[in-house]
Design a protein that fits this description.
Blueprint lengths: L1 H12 L4 E6 L13 E6 L4 E5 L2 E2 L3 E4 L2 E4 L3 E9 L1 H23 L1
Helix pairs in contact: 1-2
């Protein structure tokens, strides 16, 4: 019973949800990406993920990686989703309660 409780608590702690949202990089100034975790698909279909540390008008850089804006096909920003996190946590609580009820009854 103690192990089940510990597993449930650890699951709840790790239940933060993030999602990747595609942005139109033509209309967004490069400086808006600073500090954000991004996933870039290049024109050669290479996928590069990093946290943006600096930008110029022609490049995005971070974590030792640099991508020229001309080579970017698609940019996705990783964002935390409060609603998904609350839903997942609530679902895990209900699941945990159901498991405990089945074990006890």
């Amino acid at each position: 019973m103690k192990n089940l409780t510990m597993i449930l608590l650890i699951s709840l702690m790790l239940s933060g949800c993030t999602s990747l949202n595609e942005v139109k990089f033509d209309s967004t100034p490069p400086s808006n990406y600073i500090g954000k975790d991004i996933k870039i698909t290049t024109t050669s279909d290479e996928i590069i993920e990093f946290k943006v540390e600096s930008t110029t008008d022609s490049t995005l850089s971070g974590e030792g990686k640099s991508v020229k804006m001309d080579n970017i096909k698609k940019i996705e920003i990783k964002e935390f989703s409060v609603i998904k996190s609350i839903s997942l946590s609530s679902g895990l609580y209900i699941l945990g309660a159901a498991i405990i009820a089945v074990i006890v009854l």
